[in-house]
Amino acid sequence: MKKIVVAYSGGLDTSVIVKWAKETFNAEIVAYCADVGQAEETNGLEEKAIKTGASKCYVEDLTEEFARDFIFPMIQANAIYEGNYLLGTSIARPLIGKRLVEIAKQEGADAICHGATGKGNDQVRFELAAYALDPSIKVIAAWRDPNWTFKSRSEMIKYARVNNIPVSSTLKKPYSMDRNLLHISFEGGILEDPWAECPEEIHVMTRPLSEAEDTPEYVEIHFEKGLATSVNGEELTPCGVMRKLNEIGSKHAVGRVDIVENRFVGMKSRGVYETPAGTILMAAHRGLEQITMDREVMFLRDSFIPTYARLIYNGFWFAPEREMLQAAITESQKFVTGDVRVKLFKGACHVVGRKSEYSLYDDNLSTFEEDNVYDQTDATGFIRLNSLRLRTLAKSKQHRY
Fold first, then answer.
1. Catalytic residue among 9, 35, 90, 93
2. pLDDT in the model for residue 365
3. Catalytic: 193?
4. Residue 172 pLDDT > 80
5. Is 301 a catalytic residue?
6. DSSP state of 201
7. Higher-pLDDT residue of 131, 165
8. 176, 258, 263, 341: which one is catalytic?
9. Which residue is catalytic, options 35, 90, 122, 256?
10. How far is CA 287 from CA 327, 336, 349, 350, in A?
11. N or C: which end of the chain has fewer CB within 10 A?
12. Domain boundaries in the chain?
């Protein structure tokens, strides 16, 4: 191989991989960093990659595309994996995989290379995305390559020191972090004991609960067809919505979760996540759906959630079944337009108000006071018919025993 495009973050794994791949394959290395909202983590990456051995380094701002084409469609689906995880890392991988393939074509590279471990989900996500877009692409998975001799991050830290590769990980605090516009994840190292409480100092996108604001804050979000378009009356792009809500949610410690999830490869993994904007948007979106979405449409769409979330988690974003579900979900959002007011306080996000021109809520029907639009005696026949099979079954049981 003459040229390899390496997925580069500037962290421990990818910093070591740039030098390792150059020496192992005697190839030119092009580093590619997708800026999906890592904030200051992208500062100085180009210089660092070149010093480490890359001939070129792309640092590309994908935040708007990430929010518009990946995060927002996922929020329309209310996708949550195993009841807790808002898929922050999972949803970024198909976009990064797509751009890796495109940069490889642009550079005339022989292969792409990633630093996802053989135990994790990201190896699957990157490679499924790559193969879905270019079935002939050559993928080098460093941790699975026979030339890879490292057995742990501790060994990689020592290698980086010997070779003067600057990294932020240390032997004392070896947990890994992955940040984007939607969330930040903390895994490994001191978090590998599921009984041990996550240290309070592990936080980036939100304050610890002990430092949350002492007064609640109200936020109003406007949606158009299930997509957030403004916050507190200020019209924003999808990326702008995410940044604004991250800023507000951070002050109130909203979006912090500590979970043990089931990885695609079969093992359980403990992760600590901060997802402030995503938590607020999910709650607000669901609140608006409650008054605008037909009962049976909601029931059917909600039945898609476990499958849709699992497809994203397992790396099947570009699979036809995910695209089919997305078409149905988009159709379900036709009338999810209106405003939601949420209250943020001490780590919690509560929906406290919702309104829409398409509201199906009729206070004349729902009131507990006197009304002239609903004949309560109609319920007698309704209940009688719905109990028919139950009454029949009960009679049958009397004869059996």
1. 93
2. 74
3. no
4. no
5. no
6. T
7. 131
8. 176
9. 122
10. 22, 10, 11, 9
11. C
12. 3-171, 179-355
